[in-house]
# Entry
Amino acid sequence: MKMFRKILMPFVPLYFVATWVRNFCFNQKLIESKSFNFPIICVGNLNVGGTGKTPMIEYLIRLLETKHKITTLSRGYGRQTKGFIIADNNATSQIIGDEPFQFYQKFSNITVVVGEDRRLAIESLIKLNKEPKLLLLDDAFQHRQVYSGLNILLTSYDDLYVDDMLLPVGNLRESKSGSDRADIVVVTKCPHDITQQKCFQIKQRLSIKSYQKLFFSYIGYSQFIYSQQQEMSLKTLTNKKFTLVTGIANPKPLVNYLTEEGLIFKHLVFRDHYDFKQLDILNFQKEEIIVTTEKDYVKLEGKVDDHKLFYLPIQTKMVNSNSFDSAIESFLK
# Structure
């Protein structure tokens, strides 16, 4: 794979020119970024996948849901439908995508919307008299047709965007200078005990601008795994062999966590947003215990026996949560 990407090196300048021209047109207002009369917070990244956008959206929902009527808007990766859809009681991961369906199942007092064209989706909501009071744009940092009042850019601790290259050789969707549009930069998936010195070093490497705020976060894992009917302490898996099923962009932190907990397991790896096939389901039924992610659980629930299928919840934990929360709330005042 690495060798194949090296072969594509001549295409990097072409990709750079295409994305640079596009951003130039938006910056010079040659292409319109539509503004709306309600606050919009965008969460995104420069890299393709795996920076923790879904847990960050959930963090914002938990922070703001008691004071604001929230609408989330996602593209709906991996769904079998197209166009603008408002999640309702008929929603499934196949209809709206795994991550939006996860939002819909977990948070009953928000509106979950999907649409490839974010601007068209917002305009469709307004036409239906469902104008958002607060809109959270999921994975829309490059979707500049909509103007966001607050842009939150995520980058992983072990895969900073400054160490990456543009597609198709690297994983950058646009050049590193795109980070200048961010109001807040969050380094995700940090060690729990990250030092002030390390934070300062990363700040220097990212060349954080004077108008930007930098924060650090880590993954908080639950001590329990859950099925539709029961919960079970993670410690009960000690000395038991189980199967870990992941269809996410970067399962490494989860694998490392379970290994550090002293657990023994078989790991079945699938690509991000994978649509599990009937043969996969039949193979899963042969396993004694399956532990998976929340995102994968919403696709497997009802297909694999409930007594053997569990998910391990995670949450974004901010190193300096009070300052981060204040920065978000200040934007909404």
